[in-house]
Amino acid sequence: xxxxxxxxxxxxxxxxxxxxxxxxxxxxxxxxxxxxxxxxxxxxxxxxxxxxxxxxxxxxxxxxxxxxxxxxxxxxxxxxxxxxxxxxxxxxxxxxxxxxxxxxxxxxxxxxxxxxxxxxxxxxxxxxxxxxxxxxxxxxxxxxxxxxxxxxxxxxxxxxxxxxxxxxxxxxxxxxxxxxxxxxxxxxxxxxxxxxxxxxxxxxxxxxxxxxxxxxxxxxxxxxxxxxxxxxxxxxxxxxxxxxxxxxxxxxxxxxxxxxxxxxxxxxxxxxxxxxxxxxxxxxxxxxxxxxxxxxxxxxxxxxxxxxxxxxxxxxxxxxxxxxxxxxxxxxxxxxxxxxxxxxxxxxxxxxxxxxxxxxxxxxxxxxxxxxxxxxxxxxxxxxxxxxxxxxxxxxxxxxxxxxxxxxxxxxxxxxxxxxxxxxxxxxxxxxxxxxxxxxxxxxx
Length: 445
Ligand SMILES: Cc1ncc(COP(=O)(O)O)c(C=O)c1O
Known about the structure:
By secondary structure, the protein is of the alpha/beta class. It contains 14 helices and 13 strands. About 40% of the residues lie in helices and about 15% in strands. Helix 2 runs antiparallel to helix 11 (about 290-305) and helix 7 runs parallel beside helix 8 (about 210-220). The structure holds pyridoxal-5'-phosphate (PLP). Pyridoxal-5'-phosphate binds near residues 126 and 200.
């Protein structure tokens, strides 16, 4: 284990806390996610699949900015496209040709896409879809499954709903992934009131056979707009999203993250007759047509398509998931950690069982992986730059050394004592909503 010093991260953390609440813009990129004092808190630069922190420590990055970096940091083709656009300008007073050009790409690639509008964050696209569905149907209620961003209509359904009015919370209800009956009950309890069903169509769990088809049928039966949130699946599971992979076409879909290899861009795509309501609602902002991100996105999608991006990501994922599973078993810590998830997003998850509680096993895992030069949270977030035998070999060797120490800690009398700082704090279980909040008007008490 190379001795890693985090003095500059610590000093910058103390400085940033004075002026930046949380010392980060994003919960999942904050100090809450890593073992205090034993982890980097600030990065300085990236190249390919590697990043360097402010203390000069290097890592193979399996977080990738929370998934936007799909080709690798400083991808030469994307960066060249950005530079070429930079020579022409960034934000203009009228639309540019880039908007139509990127929209045409998405219409060609994504089954439900007949028309397209752009935003900057995933939350822009999911919230636009919700407003559009409400305008189109003249209804207010939303049923949802998954994580959909920071806006009131979604975050009000989670434990972190402080600041969201009850009147807004009352309109959103969570249903359970892979349980179509849970959606059927919601729709039945408030007939004619649901505008949209918005869901992540796939994630660490694949949709069970027939599940997405059942959701599609329920939406058709009840006149509800079906929205797939493909912010994570988009351009990773395949170029046409989960809707192409599983053969079920929603009415609208939201894309973001990977579409710009790190540049801030998202898209709402969908059926022409519903997208036509875009002219009637208000979804309009200063930066929707910002040209560097549009140019980056065109270059990113071209390269992913040309280089069979999703297939290469999946092949890398299989090697890492299989390798990690063997290592966990060899160190006899497979009661504490399991591997799961699809080929394109393999995960190593604490089981919450075995010799220590989940906070300790999560913290030990991240601490020891960081010590071995792997920046990792729960999933192997992959880019094409990871598709390299050297990187995969280095990763599995580092994983093996880290798991040897995790195993030793778990065999000791007091595994928590092996933590070199404060444990990881969960933000909240984003993919576990608090359940239906509403009591439908006509439901029994
Ligand atoms: C499935 C899904 N939807 C929506 C969002 C929100 O995207 P953003 O954070 O870019 O607003 C995320 C972000 O993690 C996500 O994973």
